[in-house]
Amino acid sequence: MMNWGQFGLQDANSPIMEELIFLSDFVNLVLIFIITFVGFIMVSMLYNTHINKTLLESQMIECIWTVIPAIILIQIAIPSLLLLYMLDESVDSSLSIKVMGHQWYWSYEYTDFWSVSDNTQLEFDAYMIPSNELESQMFRLLDVDNRTVVPFNVHVRMLISSADVLHAWTVPALGVKADAVPGRLNQVKFIAQRPGLFYGQCSEICGANHSFMPIVMESVDSSSFLSWVICMHEE
């Protein structure tokens, strides 16, 4: 059953996603105003049997319907450009994670954490859980066997690439989406603002099982994150 919440964007969990939602709401408000105004003019002209010739050929009217749309476009362009600069802002990150796309799963490397005992870094693969192995409170086609754990209120950098074909690493609630291109390293940065589970999927048609490589990011506090790192190294 569809509810009204499914017509909008996911709840934001990063400053970038909050700004994206604000921009979307603003643009939709402008569109509603334009559609209402133009629709009113069209309907009034249909039912008006007399049209003023001087009105149709007025230079003032020409100027008005040229200047006003230009002002509206500028009002939309300015916050859009500011948001683009925010997305590309280069800030020192506290945590870096390397993401590799495969057909059809994701692999993760926590390059900042090394095991002293065997001199290896923390890395794992994340496969989708098959439907016959799902447990209660799991989402079909969205849950994975190894979740990507990050601390909230920490600046995280994701380094994204691919081992075979084009993929796209996307988590809508964080407002991040980047292509995973073989031989090329892309990056996205975000700050998770609250704990929770946040889901995403590959957004590039990468093959027959494209819809079976989901992303699950778990945001926890810093102490729980460090405990998880220790447990992963012990395994």
Automatic annotation (TrEMBL):
Span of the signal peptide: none
Catalytic activity: 4 Fe(II)-[cytochrome c] + O2 + 8 H(+)(in) = 4 Fe(III)-[cytochrome c] + 2 H2O + 4 H(+)(out)
GO molecular function, one term: cytochrome-c oxidase activity
Gene3D superfamilies: 1.10.287.90, Cupredoxins - blue copper proteins
Gene Ontology CC: one annotated term: mitochondrial inner membrane
InterPro entries linked: CcO_II (IPR045187), CcO_II-like_C (IPR002429), CcO_II_C (IPR034210), Copper_CuA (IPR001505), Cupredoxin (IPR008972), Cyt_c_oxidase_su2 (IPR014222), Cyt_c_oxidase_su2_TM_dom (IPR011759), Cyt_c_oxidase_su2_TM_sf (IPR036257)
Co-factor binding details: Binds a copper A center.
Protein known as: Cytochrome c oxidase subunit 2
Native source species: Eucalanus bungii
